Amino acid sequence: MSAAGHSEDGRPRAAAALADADFVRLVGTADGDAVAAAGLLARALDAAGTPYQVSLAAVPEPPATDADCTVAVGHPTGDLTLEGDALALEAAAIVAELASEAVDPELALAGAICAGVEPSGHLLEAADLDRRPGVAIPTDDRIEGLAASTLVHAPFSGDDEVVEAALEEFDEQDGRELASLVALSAIEEAPPRAAEAVERALRPYVTERFGTLGGFADVLDAVARERPGTGIALALGHEVETAALESWRTHGKRAHRALRAANTGRYEGVYVLRLDAGSPAFLGTVARLGLSYRSPEPVALAVTDGAAAAVSETSVETPVRAAAGELDGRATVRNDHGTATFDGTVAGFTAAFRGAV
């Protein structure tokens, strides 16, 4: 976490700035890592008795000026910015300085999974989680869990009936067989990177909340994108599991169906997924799944009129920002993924993006 324009080695200074503020505004991007980070910081502010407000958006608006301290979570516009490969892990380190009792190791680790970072270190030791054979899903219903999961994309994804048919001959208790089915299905006719991507869904850590750590992460990311208010409540520890699971089911199935229905185009370096009347809420999920399980190119771009998301093996900052700027839009880019809103069409953004790659 850093003050704008300064070094990122400022956790004690950032914690002090939060402790001294009379009112804090937390402005995050609408994804699981950012909402986990915002939730951790909000819990610390609660413990310190500091009033705060939390908001999420795919591309956050420039911050208002009515707060003593505005924290930008996942984007660069704020008095303080949260940075790093996993925002939730960085937030946990800040919270340890500010109010150590507010650190929730499971929430931080779930946020890290959303960012594609493998759980490890002292937070994993503090969480003291066991692992078991099987697949990371957030429900005891394996059919529903596999159909809606966005940790993997396979021929059965998004369709309960196809999942049910695939599981007919499987032992209810055999997690290893289930993991093998999911892994083999996911890599069938997929690019080589699918073999690594599917590992996120296998041999899960066991948790009380949502059953598995990967399942918790999947719900967190889906709800942050689909229903940000519920995502914030979930990260704050409120009892919104029923609403969160419903949003997760909706988000996951819509994303898988959109990925299959997309009009695709392969260009030098870019795999484009054009979505007619697609919801901006699931563009990031479609782009991520598209890169991991469909794209023969190193960049996947999911785009609909007025909104786009890109995921890459490397940075996508230049093409996302350039394309958004050319169409009077705004963009948020972090590491290997970016989101844009713009005034224009699928064709216009795609052309501008390709021109900047």
Task: Compile the SSE list and pairings.
Layout: E1 2-3, H1 11-20, E2 24-29, H2 32-48, E3 52-57, E4 69-73, E5 80-82, H3 87-98, H4 105-114, H5 121-127, H6 142-148, H7 160-167, H8 175-187, H9 193-197, H10 213-226, H11 228-235, H12 241-261, E6 263-267, E7 270-274, H13 283-293, E8 299-304, E9 307-312, H14 317-326, E10 330-334, E11 337-341, H15 346-356
Helix pairs in contact: 1-3, 2-3, 2-4, 2-10, 2-11, 3-4, 4-5, 4-10, 6-7, 6-12, 10-11, 10-12, 12-13, 14-15
Class by alpha and beta content = alpha/beta
Largest sheet: 6 strands, mixed
Beta content? 15-25%
What's the shape? globular
Radius of gyration: 20 Å
Q: What letter string, H or E per element, gives the SSE order?
A: EHEHEEEHHHHHHHHHHEEHEEHEEH
As for the number of domains, it is: 3
How many E-type strands?
A: 11
Tag the structure with descriptive keywords.
357 residues, alpha/beta, Diaminopimelate Epimerase, Chain A, domain 1, 3 domains, six-stranded mixed sheet, 15 helices, globular, disordered N terminus
Structure in a nutshell:
With 357 residues, the protein is of the alpha/beta class.
What does this structure look like?
The chain is an alpha/beta fold. It has helices at residues 11-20, 32-48, 87-98, 105-114, 121-127, 142-148, 160-167, 175-187, 193-197, 213-226, 228-235, 241-261, 283-293, 317-326, 346-356; strands at residues 2-3, 24-29, 52-57, 69-73, 80-82, 263-267, 270-274, 299-304, 307-312, 330-334, 337-341. Helix 2 (32-48) crosses helix 10, helix 6 (142-148) crosses helix 7 and helix 10 crosses helix 12. The protein is globular, with a radius of gyration of 20 Å. The chain starts with a strand and ends with a helix.
